[in-house]
Specification:
By secondary structure, this protein is mainly β. It has a single domain, classed as Alpha-Beta Complex (Fumarylacetoacetate hydrolase, domain 2), CATH 3.90.850.10. Helix content is 9%, strand content 33%. The protein has helices spanning 20-26, 104-107, 154-162; strands spanning 12-16, 43-47, 52-54, 59-61, 68-69, 72-79, 82-91, 113-115, 120-121, 132-137, 140-146, 172-174, 187-188, 193-197, 204-210. Strands 1, 2, 3, 6, 7, 8, 9 and 12 form an 8-stranded mixed sheet that branches. It has a 5-stranded mixed sheet with strand order 4-15-14-10-11, with no helix packed on it. The protein is globular and about 45 Å long. The relative contact order is 0.27.
């Protein structure tokens, strides 16, 4: 095992509305303008390089913002012939009310992608489809994310994405972030510490701070 922390070697892609609970909550609005129909293909966005924040790094909340949302997810790390490893990731975002435009300014702030020290080889995971991720805030369990509730399980999502774009070695395809029973993701405040856990993965921890005024 390398002593250097892992970081994505390629592009990191996220996917919206890939959990049944969140999809069902948004489904009534999918027939409204501007699209007037549910999406037929995965709705992707890019998590830019400036967002990467290693395990233990502080996530900064802009002044005047209600907080930052935790986004527990798994990323498929691509090799030459498809995924070779998985990464436990925290896809942080600012609270926002609409997915009808690319959510770049909410999801692509500096330090808004928590990355682990190491990935886990895909062959070491017995059943990715039933994996459960837990979100702990200040030591208390705040959310459980169940990958059995994916609209597009990992293999299906990968096949549908490969149908219209090429994922290259080093790229990462995240499986999506779920919401809780209230339709929200855990909201974090400066002074909080968020830790993600999942069987087979090392915990991923990030303290939350306040962004200094320019």
């Amino acid at each position: 095992m390398s002593a250097d922390p892992w970081h994505p070697a390629g592009t990191v892609y996220g996917v919206l509305l890939n959990f049944r609970n969140e999809y069902d909550r948004w489904q009534p609005r999918m027939h409204e303008a501007p699209y007037k129909a549910p999406p037929q293909a995965p709705v992707l966005y890019v998590k830019t390089a400036n967002t990467r924040n290693p395990d233990g790094g502080t996530v900064l909340v802009p002044t005047g913002v209600a907080g930052v949302e935790a986004g527990a997810t798994i990323g498929l790390v691509m090799g030459d012939q498809g995924p070779v490893a998985c990464a436990l990731l925290n896809d942080f975002s600012l609270p926002h009310a609409s997915y009808f435009r690319p959510p770049v300014k909410f999801r692509c702030r500096d330090g808004f992608l928590g990355t682990p020290a190491q990935t886990v080889p895909l062959t070491d995971l017995t059943d990715l489809a039933t994996l459960q991720l837990q979100v702990h805030v200040n030591g208390a369990l705040r959310q459980t994310v169940d990958l059995s509730q994916l609209m597009r399980p990992a293999a299906t999502l990968l096949a549908e994405v490969n149908a219209f774009m090429t994922l290259r070695p080093g790229d990462v395809l995240m499986l999506g972030c779920d919401v809780g029973p209230d339709g929200q993701r855990p909201l974090l405040q400066p002074g909080d510490t968020v830790t993600l856990t999942a069987p087979g993965f090392a915990p991923l921890t990030h303290p939350i701070g306040t962004e200094a005024l320019a």
